[in-house]
Amino acid sequence: MMDTVIFTLAGRPVLLLDLISSVLGLVCVFLAGRNSKYNFWVGYLYTAALFLLFWHRNLFASLLLQPLSLAINVLGHWRWTHPREEERARDNSLKVSMLSWPERVLSLVGVLLVAGLWGWTLDSLFPADPHPYLDSCVTVLILLAQLLSALKKWDCWLVWLLVNLTQIALHLSVGNVLMSVVSALYLINGLWSLATWLRLYRREAHI
Fold first, then answer.
1. Are 49 and 26 in contact (CB under 8 A)?
2. pTM score, two decimals?
3. HEC letters along the chain
4. 9 Cβ partners below 8 Å, 6+ apart?
5. Residue 150: which of 39, 51, 64 has the closest Cα?
């Protein structure tokens, strides 16, 4: 199943597992952008699909991060469905909130420090990686975006936009057309979700 080629794109084979992972990822972020708690159920399937994909391609550095992604998904599922009284929106879900400026600065510093350490680790353990520090920075940004989304912070979509723009450039640089298209769809969804969550934040601020 993992080796089943569905079609070719720009001369590169697209496997069934590639397609399943891409569709699950797009559905997950689409539901999150629409403020649907069901994004977490899709997220569980997406994490499992990515685990299989990275295992199949021997991308062990990325594979090792999937348990952390799963833990963040579980945290988000709980927080969205079990908000404290002061965090409760009209529909009894978690309100959309924003990071303060000190929290934003702390997040940025944290990303740089963790990405630097992870990049050094990748460079030491996987010297074949041509962009260890860039790859690690994108990976850490993805984890930050997932965490902020789990806490229903509007700022998560700003981080996702940065991730999507970087991934489009990276995939184009290696000729990975499918993932460039998928990243572009993520970017469109991110822009839409940024506006949607801002409206929710402003509406729920008056509750």
1. no
2. 0.89
3. CCCCEEEEECCEEEEHHHHHHHHHHHHHHHHHHCCCCCHHHHHHHHHHHHHHHHHHCCCHHHHCCHHHHHHHHHHHHHHHHCCCHHHECCCCCECCECCCHHHHHHHHHHHHHHHHHHHHHHHHHCCCCCCHHHHHHHHHHHHHHHHHHHCCECCHHHHHHHHHHHHHHHHHHCCCHHHHHHHHHHHHHHHHHHHHHHHHHHHHCCC
4. 177, 178
5. 39
Examine the pLDDT at 125 and tell me if it is beyond 70: yes
Q: What angle do CA 4, 139, 32 make, to 5 degrees?
A: 80
What are the tens digits of pLDDT across the range 146-202? 999 999 999 999 999 999 998 888 778 767 777 788 899 999 999 999 999 999 999
Counting Cβ atoms within 10 Å, is residue 42 exposed (0-12), middle (13-18) or buried (19+)? buried
Confidence of residue 3 (pLDDT cuts 50, 70, 90): low
pLDDT beyond 80 at 24 = yes
Report the half-sphere exposure of 171 (CA within 13 A, side-chain side).
18
Question: What is the token pair recorded at 36?
Answer: 């649907």
Residue spans per domain, the chain: 5-87+99-204
pLDDT of residue 59: 66
